[in-house]
């Protein structure tokens, strides 16, 4: 097992000054969904401010990611106070304007019983007449962008073999379709409490499909550190950026630092950089 490196930056990802140009091989992330009533009520002043954040992040991602590489963005349209915001369409436009190519869109389908905020469809049960229909949403989008074209010859034969995708897993779990059926993280799970975490299966597929062993995976909206955890488990380095200082304890625990779990290389390194109001502090 090769040693891997993990870095958590506590700060705002609109500015990724600690990350060198073209030093990241894959981005897997899920930004806040505008003012999602459940998780981010009133976080942004208005929709333009939200789009402004995505614009700055897209520009920084274009700078730090290597040519030919992929950004996997889990995001979805959001209903706020009865108005639906077209976040997927706007994020796609923003990433195109930042210079990325739009490569694909995968739909993540949650289990049929998934319920979180309310059953909007219930309206029609009370009023079984036309015009009362509002569907329950079981879907999220996973949009995939690429910076230019990938040079397949840039990878050594050895690393290529070490990173080989298990064809059985690929077919049995139907990774090949534009519909990925994955369970959601249960609201109230101890480590992800109050964090709209995505299931490990999402970064697991993305890391396996779009990065090689020993490469660096970035999550600029690290949350509970799900992407970092999977990167470590799959022999990749990781960088996470998270604005909430309180996430440090959760992320450290989730990615297995401080535990004696023998599935990890004990020589792996973990570094935290606190960047608050322009000041820096390091913990190694
Ligand atoms: C949808 S959650 C990500 C959850 C993550 N995928 C996981 O599995 O735990 C979005 C995260 O982005 C963080 N965040 C919001 N704005 C940010 C910013 N400007 N810079 C860095 N982090 C930010 C939030 O605090 C939240 O933890």
Defining key terms:
single chain, 284 residues, alpha/beta, Rossmann fold, 25% helix, globular
Structural description of this entry:
The structure is a single chain. With 284 residues, the protein is α/β, with parallel strands linked by helices. It has one domain: Vaccinia Virus protein VP39 (Rossmann fold). It has eight helices and twelve strands. Helix 1 packs across helix 2. The longest helix is centred in the first third of the chain and has 18 residues. The chain is globular, with a radius of gyration of 19 Å. Bound molecules: S-adenosylmethionine. S-adenosylmethionine (SAM) binds next to strand 10.
How is the topology of this model organized?
Layout: E1 5-10, E2 24-29, H1 47-64, E3 65-75, E4 78-80, E5 83-85, H2 87-97, E6 101-109, H3 122-126, E7 139-146, H4 157-162, H5 167-172, E8 179-181, H6 201-210, E9 216-219, H7 226-233, E10 237-242, H8 247-254, E11 269-276, E12 279-283
Parallel strand pairs: 1-10, 1-11, 2-3, 2-9, 6-8, 9-10
Antiparallel strand pairs: 3-7, 4-5, 6-7, 11-12
Helix pairs in contact: 1-2
The structure holds S-adenosylmethionine.
The site of S-adenosylmethionine has 18 residues, from strand 10.
Could you tell me the radius of gyration in angstroms?
19 Å
Low-confidence spans: none
Shape: globular
- Report the major sheet: 10 strands, mixed
Q: DSSP helix count?
A: 8
Read across the widest sheet, the strand sequence of neighbours is 8-6-7-3-2-9-10-1-11-12
- Whole-Å distance between the termini? 21 Å
Amount of helix: 25-40%
Named at the architecture level, the CATH assignment is 3-Layer(aba) Sandwich
Count of domains:
1
Fraction of residues in β-strands: 25-35%
User: What's the CATH topology label?
Assistant: Rossmann fold
């Amino acid at each position: 097992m090769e040693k891997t490196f993990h870095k958590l930056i506590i700060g705002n990802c609109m500015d990724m000054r600690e990350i060198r140009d073209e030093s990241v091989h894959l981005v897997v992330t899920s930004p806040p969904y505008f003012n999602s009533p459940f998780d981010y009520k009133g976080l942004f002043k208005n929709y333009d401010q939200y789009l402004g954040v995505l614009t700055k992040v897209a520009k920084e991602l274009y700078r730090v990611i290597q040519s030919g590489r992929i950004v996997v963005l889990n995001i979805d349209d959001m209903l706020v106070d009865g108005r639906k915001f077209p976040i997927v369409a706007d994020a796609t436009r923003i990433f195109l304007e930042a210079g990325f190519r739009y490569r694909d869109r995968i739909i993540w389908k949650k289990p049929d019983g998934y319920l979180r905020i309310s059953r909007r469809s219930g309206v029609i049960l009370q009023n079984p007449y036309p015009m009362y229909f509002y569907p329950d949403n079981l879907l999220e989008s996973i949009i995939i962008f690429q910076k230019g074209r990938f040079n397949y010859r840039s990878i050594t034969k050895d690393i290529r073999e070490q990173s080989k995708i298990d064809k059985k897993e690929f077919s049995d779990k139907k990774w090949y379709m534009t519909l990925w059926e994955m369970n959601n993280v249960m609201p109230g799970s101890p480590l992800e409490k109050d964090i709209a975490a995505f299931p490990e299966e999402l970064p697991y597929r993305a890391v396996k499909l779009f990065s090689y062993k020993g490469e660096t995976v970035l999550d600029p909206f690290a949350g509970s550190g799900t992407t970092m955890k999977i990167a470590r488990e799959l022999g990749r380095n990781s960088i996470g950026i998270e604005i909430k200082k309180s996430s440090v304890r959760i992320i450290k625990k989730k990615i297995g630092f401080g535990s004696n779990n023998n599935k990890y290389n004990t020589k792996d390194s973990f570094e935290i950089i606190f960047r608050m109001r322009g000041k820096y502090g390091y913990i190694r």
